[in-house]
């Protein structure tokens, strides 16, 4: 840890991709405090592969201290803020010159890497010992998990139940249809416009809202995680949350009405797809601004937006992609994402060994 005397203090709340990239980039310029409830950063878009192949998690979980050795890591959740300080669940009160909120989505993951890997091993065991599996939720998490299981465990009977009228509602209909067709080809049964009461399971049978019975040995709940902003509702920032609970930011990614409080990543109300590569662009913009501010310059960077692109992997080799208004599926988008799931690229961004 380098000496922090005389440096401006930046407190970053949240150690997802947005907060981690920012902490890495500011740690040698300012006195950085990174607050996250876990000891590690997880490459979240690679987590479904870890369920079918727990060893993959050795590369997708990176301790915060590994990529940000010069930052102070506070392993706890932020619970409150004032104009000068942040309070955490473990009773720390940390003052700041600049605050960056990057709390993205609520994450109830395990505290250590070891515990997280153990969880993945249990999930894999659950799949191995089942002959039929129910996946609840047809957003990116449910679709990617169905893809992983159907490719790695083709003998398992997979049923996916989704409340919406089509899979992957965050992309266009063409991409939804391509994913639907691909899963059907892999014998995944898809039930739309129904929900499952998971407590209603009797003798290995789950019941849907539409009266259907699904025989499954186990289930995975794959519904999206809520935005992690409920803790802000009793703070001075309650007026800065939009009706979806996102923080309203200006073109410099500053929380509206505040000069020294920024927000980055999925927690922000920027009108764009919520994607990790865009979260990293937010962090790049804020890093430049804070470096300039601590050097006494008032020059702030503006966020101009990035390409609108989403790739949903379908097992290890294929994917469906929407790039602007173009949709494609198969091995070409699969080559872009599905083999390594951007793990090497992300590790490189964070400056950790690619092994
Ligand atoms: C299945 C799936 C596939 C995806 N594929 C891609 C892809 O291919 N490419 C891509 O670019 N994006 C992809 N995404 C989107 C990407 O995962 C998100 O956009 C990205 O993770 C957002 O990063 P974030 O740092 O803003 O938030 P998060 O990743 O949600 O991180 C937030 C962090 O803040 C912490 N936190 C929460 N509350 C508090 C608190 N009170 N105090 C302190 N810390 C807190 C959390 O524990 C977490 O560590 C995918 C998403 C899913 C679900």
TrEMBL record:
Keyword match Flavoprotein: yes
Pfam families per the UniProt record, alphabetical: Pyr_redox_2
Keywords tagged on the record: FAD, Flavoprotein, Oxidoreductase
SUPFAM superfamilies reported for this sequence: FAD/NAD(P)-binding domain
Highest taxon listed in the record's lineage: Eukaryota
Domain named FAD/NAD(P)-binding: residues: 9-280
One Gene Ontology term, aspect cellular component: cytoplasm
Family annotation (InterPro entries): FAD/NAD-bd_sf, FAD/NAD-binding_dom
Record bears the keyword Oxidoreductase: yes
GO molecular function: electron-transferring-flavoprotein dehydrogenase activity; flavin adenine dinucleotide binding
Family in the record: Belongs to the FAD-dependent oxidoreductase family.
Chain's role: Putative FAD-dependent oxidoreductase.
This protein's name: Oxidoreductase
Source organism (scientific name): Lithospermum erythrorhizon
